[in-house]
Fold each of these.
Amino acid sequence: MLEFLPFDPWKAVQFSQVLLRGAIMTVQITAGALVIAIVLGLMMAVIKTSRVRVVRFLVDAYIEIFRGIPALTLLFILYFGLAYSGLQIKSVPAAILGLGLVGCATLTEVFRSGFEALHHGQREAALAVGMTPIMAMRNIILPQAVRITLPPIGNYAIGLLKDTAIVSAIAAPEIMFYARNLVTSTFDTTTIYVLAAILYFCLSFPLARIVSRLEERRRSWQ
Amino acid sequence: MEESLLRVEELHKSFGDLEVLRGVSLVLSQGRKLSIIGPSGSGKSTLLRCINYLEEPTKGHIYVNGHLVGEKLVDGRYVRMSSKELAPQRAEIGMVFQNFYLWPHLTARENVAIGPQRVRGLSKKDSLDLADMMLEKVRMARKRDEYPERLSGGQQQRVAIARALAQEPRLMLFDEPTSALDPELVGEVLKVIYELADEGRTMVLVTHEIGFAQEVSDEVIFVDKGRVAAHGPPCDVLQNPQQERLCSFLGKLLGS
């Protein structure tokens, strides 16, 4: 009865149910990697404000190294390479760790530019009232830097969500992993990948809306 | 001998090859007000910033209330303090900046309260009460819940003064407190500083407002090329200048 459609709606519903299971995993991997990237990125950005040159050098080296390695390569090292040397990491933790480590290099730069956007007078005023540098960082610099960096972090999260597609290569059961499995068993390539695309869009679009809201709000401190 | 509240000994400060301060010494007793005047680039702001160690002097020593600031004597040698040791010393010195530097993510009230709360460990309620008192003093109580971006320059500077007062400092430093203000807003800030002077606070002001310096201060120093070129009561330094450089500086400033 619905033969005018270019695809079989009944099958599409079945495919969607399978892909939705993957969507939950996609969200979990994104969230996990995001938390690692934010925590490590923030730590490294704070460390980069240190006066000790060796410490700054180590952070810079980390950033350059991870900026220069494709995420997929890192995932293979974590998943296959480490297993070979006796350290077995399961696919999902490997995916979260790998994307988190790569993301942390990006977010360190985001946080660092957030700190730099603040006038040094902000910090001096904090020192002048008797705060230690650590108190000034916590009470004055960080709250402002986080506010400034929320929109770029949101944009990074959107990119990350889409990049999780590559972790299907180490068999983490997310959207693309299920999509490829379905294609192998049903050969209904177009329907399945279009459904996967729709699913990714449904996940990333709300995030994009949140980011533009944050960008509007950033213009005011209230 | 009367113990001086502030003593600056042979202060030198260089930025790279640039020698900004070349041996400045001064003494200020409790309750006295000192104005520092001088052409831009003469080192007067640097001198003020050295007093609370926002700039570390290249040579020389600062004493507030008889205590070395930013350094300690270990086996007869001067050693730089850690930032943790320095912080409580800075808390005893209030500083008002040219560009206010209020914290934009906090309301006026929170700007004043956060120091007492974090530095002196006051409870949240006590620190907010203290903030209200200080804002009352600078006539900003009505605007206490506004964020800095909603305040005029003069209002922001008054909040910044309240923030410094909340430290209950022994010494107040003002770094050109009205230079960033529109002319019509200068008066309200100067009025607040007058009132503080009347309370008998010890103050050091860097200013270009000669009339104000004359009225408010007990002493004036003229800093030129990193040295104290003239020092005395305002009537001598400002009205009866002896040095040629000081005469031409005052002449330019007063537009005559």
Amino acid sequence: MIYDLTHRTLYKYSEPSLFARHLLHLLPRTRSGQHVREACLTILPVPDFRFDEVDYFGNALTTIVLVAPHDLLEITLRAVIEVEAPAASNAAAAGGRACGATAAEIAEFSVTTALTRADAAIAALAHDAAAGRDDAFGVGLATMRAIHERFTYRPGVTSVATTAAAALARREGVCQDYAHVMLAALRVLGLPCRYVSGWLRSGEATRGAEQSHAWVSLWTGPGRGWVDFDPTNNIVVGCEHATLAWGRDFDDVSPVRGVIRGGGQHIPTVEVAMQPRASG
Amino acid sequence: MTLGTRELAARKAALRRMAAVQLPGLARAPEYDPLPVMLPSGLAARLGRALCRRAALLGGVIDDLYSVRSLVAAGTVSAATLSAADGWLRQMVGDAGLVAPRLALYAADLAIDAAGGAVVLRDHVDIVPGLGHAIALRRFTGAAMPELVRSVTLVGRGPVIERWREDLAHWAGGGLVALLEGEAENAADDGADAALLARAIGAPRLRPADLDCFGEAPEFRTLTGSRPVRLLIRRMAASAIDPLEQGGNPAAGIAGVLGALRRQQLAMLNAPGSGVINEPAIAASIEVAIGAAHEAQFGEPMMLCAGAGADLPIVPLAPESESAAMGEAACVLRLFALHCGSSGWVALPGGLGLVQGPDGMTQMKDVWVVDRGEDAEMPRLPVRGAVSLARAATSVLPSRAADDLFWLGRAVERLEAAGRLCALAQSGLAEASALPHEQFQRELILRCLAHQQLISPDLAGRNVAARQLREAIRGGAVFAPLIEAARRLVAATSDRFSPTMLATIEGALERVLAARAAGLAELVPAIFGFAATCAGVIGEDAARDGALLFATLGQRLERLFGMAGSFAILLDEEGGRLAAGASLAIELIDAGMTCEQRYGGIPEPDTALRLLLADPAYPRSLLFQAIALAEGFERLGAAAEAAEARAIGVALKAAAGSASPRTALAAVEARAADLSSALTGRLFAPPASCQHRDGAAPA
């Protein structure tokens, strides 16, 4: 499936921002089963400095610096992304790195973080879901379902700083909260898993489209490799999702983070459209 | 040569006095002991060689962990342990390498037994403490114990330090080298170690607030513009060094500094993240690995291995006082190694002896290596000499320092003005009668006190009993925030005063602090004494266009601002009582003597106005302040501010000739406030940063 993607982030500042330095995770990464045909990040006002790097997790990382006062900042990604069905991609890459994971990677994604620290409730959820199952994929499915059943999708009640424990206590939140709870639960069980940020095909009867989306990738072992689960929609990720970046939790892949001087109040608005190409 | 215990105690005191003079502003002088630890040259050479080997091996481990990660792939270092380690800095992983080695400064705390065997009690691979003390203590000890120095020939440290400085300059590409200090890390010894190290290598001491990454590399904000910094000797924790990438308080770090390191626009000693190998679970496996590597590389077991519980040698300790006896204490030896570019690691001859004094405080001793002329293993370094050192940097005034001095001037003046106003209130309220003009004067005083935020506005707006007002100001509580502000700013600017000048100012401030409990009768004179002391010290330096010019500007600007505000109330023509207000204004600025001499008493209101507002030669007139400000701004090259100060002067002359000066004075007060804002915004520290990590919160 080939998608045309537009992701527009707009900051309007109540007072001019005098100086700004931002880190952007907004250029999609390539992975097994996903080919980024084109990707262009347009920033207005044009930054005085821009540096493009690859971060520790292999994501594209862009640093921009604006030294002139500005009262709005618009960051637009236009990309063409080709996504394959996971089964095909895993088969194609069998034996290769895509279906394997180094000890370092497995260790990295087994470590709990501030946002994914489990409490007793998360541990109980994890152990209930894993009971009687000895394969990671099955545990992943059961955990995803357990979270989906308990949670109510409700935007605006949590923030990017909400921890997994706090989200589960509320039993409501958005995709990031679903993902953090699932990560915390899987890590309680010793299963390596990563937070994935990306996009969901527009117009589907799913939650999280037309915005940034987040889900979980679970290391299921050398046979099946990394498998992505979308607990918000209770689905195993197919070719309806495009990956932007991954890390241990949201903090590793925050789309825009920055340090600014001035600016007063600012609320970002985000518009996303991920449309399949008719010819794709 | 024999020195008695009394003389040794005196030498110890002399040693600490010397250090205190060299380190003004410290709450407590470094705990030095004048008796050096003697290290036989043969043992010193063996230890130095082993230290350098250990440093090289540890540096190799750090490089491996942050680049190819072969030790993780081989299972030598557990991936799980590394990933869970607090000191593991993912942002510093990369194959491209850095400008300088990740580990370029190293120290080890050693326990040395009588047979010359040594055990490493602790590796210092992150921030390396004590290097400044180690370098300076040689000089201090030599001065305190000249008889000892004359009796031996010591292996000098000069060539090693000089060579290291050249390598620092080389890594900096001839750019600026500086120390980067954090608040918490400095607190342990009041910044003494950092101050001594900075002095030894001729580098400025910077805080995160002094630096900005406008572009690729950090820049040091000075009053003459920004200067790129190319090498930072890190004296702050790596965990919050870059608020952009690591989160946390933006003011506590430098946003973008990790990116600058990755892009090789900056060198940092040691690189952030180097401390990860100190994590106990990692250190144990690394110890095994470097032991094996040492054997493979050098064909012999490693001399310096990590261990614990070793017996420490006992060394003598000079008495703390003339009546005390000689002491002795177990000694840990801290030896230092410096990475000198192509020459590799070089051990600093000697080091620091660390012992616990009778009061439980750690005392530092110099470590002497006697040069017997036979040891070819002591450092003999080629001189690089290709890159000149950026020593001039030490004379550059950071924006932050200028900002602090400016506000010190304002704080001292504000404190003095508050003292004058309270003294006026106290005399005006004593036995206050019901006579109309006295009641009117009392109302004016109340309004001035409220305007200067010394009493609640509620008290100014009604017919307050004299007793109630006296209660409000008597205890001196109104001064508490002003005194605290002055105290904080004296501390912040302490390195800008000579030791004797600082001691003078601190002594005057101590008297203010001591008089707080005694009430206004003692507190106000103490405040006047403090203000006069500061003015004298500041005036002496400012006359030479030193950094204290900024304190003078603050002082003048505050006087213009504060007095304009009070005069706008006192010189209110409403009700035809200008004469009553003018006499209060004269009393407020202590111009009674001048009036007596010039006019034979309190002059008519129009004459008083000319004196108070527009006399260019009278140091307490508002015009005098405006002229002084204009001249100060001109010396700084701040043309716009100078023009505004002169324009304010013109307005003051006009106000003095008018029958209604109140409105003009209120405008002068506002213009002075704007002038302060303009100055701080243009020349000094930028406004506070805020951090966000929202971007596009996923849904």
